[in-house]
Design brief:
Layout: E1 8-12, H1 20-27, E2 33-39, E3 44-49, H2 52-64, E4 68-69, E5 72-73, E6 75-78, H3 92-108, E7 128-134, H4 142-149, E8 155-163, E9 166-173, H5 176-186, E10 190-192, E11 195-202, E12 217-219, H6 236-243, H7 268-276, E13 292-296, H8 305-312, E14 318-323, E15 331-335, H9 338-348, E16 352-353, E17 356-357, E18 359-362, E19 381-383, E20 409-412, H10 421-429, E21 437-443, E22 446-452
Length: 454
């Protein structure tokens, strides 16, 4: 985002019918909103937060996740103004809405010194949903939940856990309205065909304290959190408060064989692989969806089509890569299908590559064009359609079950028996990494190697 940090933010490209409440809701997850000025004739607004820190957190978050209002992308940047001076007589409606929202926000604010507030909030007002998965025939990952529930608004935090032998989750939106919309649309639906039924209700909790970003819990507003591998996902304070809740959920909803919900994957055979790969057959995200990703903020001195193929190939079969000629810190990457592009985007957006945090979004292009025959594009475009290194050519293969976010531990297979420990240490040390520990182990006839790096 351009400009020096300021607690006043400038919001552009707003839909014409957008309301003050919707604009204010953008800032609520990050702190108290103290003022707003709507410029509806220009499709713009100014939003003032209580602190510059809150504004910086908001800008950083929406740099990685493009905000949408009414299905239209909007743009947020720092304003030149350090505070917002408005004429209340001309801005009466916006001020009235702000006062009403602030009153609700004060009611919902966490009690100082605690991780969870159970203040006088009725469950229907909570932005936190309690989710139970019934008839869980296939695994449901945190990324699957994020993909499904993001359809109804920005998901801020998710905690998943097992309680009473049932897979459950707590999911927090920035606005209770989003939680209500998600509950109405998804309660009782099947994620996959005839199984993995969602039972959803409002939690009495109004704020989740996520300590670790891993495969069990995630705070999407805090990408800096540690992974905390091996630590329990559910904070003890949240667990204690959660245990006090009287469940408002009814008896388990039996999945009807053959029933096909709006979220379902059409056949059970494909569902096993799709579930493991984090795919979900939701409207607008299907195998026929956009396959091209736009990757920006690349290290243009280091990045190559081959390095992008290798990285994105962990999450799908990369077909083509094109580093932009006039903007070499950006590239287009074409995956085999829309599910793979969604999977790569959800795992790699905000990750560091060659020392720079990359941004991954869906491109407006439907395909990556190869250069015209005879035209030298300096090796910036590569076709990997026939690469023997594709991992996902066989439906239902074990590769679908081993898709995880980038981590400091690597798993190698097919290592020849003649390769010694020192060979592997040398190989990875030559890349500039520090090998902290590793383990050889034998499984049938294949050798595996784990490497941990600080």
């Amino acid at each position: 985002m351009d400009g020096a940090p300021s607690r006043v933010l400038h919001i552009r490209k707003l839909p014409g019918e957008v309301t003050e409440t919707e604009v204010i809701a953008l800032g609520l997850p990050f702190g108290k909103v103290t003022n707003i000025l709507m410029l509806k004739g220009k499709n713009q607004a100014f939003l003032e937060l209580a602190t510059e820190e809150a504004a910086i957190t908001m800008v950083n978050y929406y740099s990685a996740v493009t905000p949408h209002l009414r299905n239209q992308p909007i743009y947020i940047q720092y304003s030149n103004h350090k505070e917002l001076k408005t004429d209340n007589t001309l801005n009466q409606r916006a001020q009235a809405v702000l006062q009403a929202v602030t009153a609700v926000q004060a009611t919902n604010a966490p009690i100082s010194g605690t991780t969870v507030s159970e203040s006088a909030v009725t469950p229907a007002q909570s932005p936190v949903l309690r989710i139970i998965i019934d008839n869980m025939y296939y695994p449901v990952t945190l990324d699957v939940l994020h993909q499904i529930f993001s359809k109804f608004g920005a998901v801020l935090k998710i905690i998943t856990f097992t309680k009473n032998n049932q897979f459950q989750a707590l999911l927090q939106y920035g606005d209770p309205v989003n939680a209500q919309q998600a509950k109405l649309a998804l309660d009782g639906q099947n994620i996959y065909n005839a199984c993995c039924t969602l039972r959803i209700d409002f939690s009495k909790l109004v704020n989740l304290n996520v300590k670790y970003n891993n495969d069990k819990s995630r705070d999407y507003t805090r990408p800096d959190l540690p992974s905390g591998d091996g630590q329990p996902a559910l904070d003890p304070a949240i667990a204690a408060a959660f245990a006090k809740e009287t469940s408002l959920l009814g008896l388990p909803v039996a999945a009807v064989p053959g029933a096909l919900s709006p979220l379902a994957i059409p056949n059970a055979a494909a569902a096993a692989a799709a579930a493991a790969a984090g795919r979900v057959g939701m409207p607008g995200v299907s195998a026929g969806g956009n396959t091209v990703l736009l990757v920006s903020n690349l290290n243009e001195e280091m990045v190559t089509p081959q390095s992008l193929f290798t990285l994105f190939g962990v999450y799908g079969d990369v077909q083509r890569v094109k580093i932009l000629y006039n903007k070499k810190d950006s590239a287009l990457i074409q995956m085999a299908d829309g599910n793979q592009s969604q999977l790569a985007m959800s795992h790699l957006n905000g990750q560091k590559m060659y020392g720079k945090i990359i941004r991954v979004t869906l491109s407006k292009h439907q395909t990556v064009q190869l250069p015209r025959e005879g035209l030298d594009d300096q090796g910036l475009t590569k076709d990997f359609g026939n690469s023997p290194l594709h991992r996902f050519k066989k439906p239902g293969s074990k590769n679908f079950q081993n898709i995880f976010p980038p981590s400091a531990t690597l798993h190698l297979s097919n290592i020849p028996p003649s390769v010694a420990e020192e060979d592997l240490r040398t190989l990875f040390a030559n890349t500039g990494g520090t090998v902290k520990a590793f383990k050889f182990f034998k499984e049938i006839t294949r050798w595996h190697f784990f490497r941990c790096q600080q």
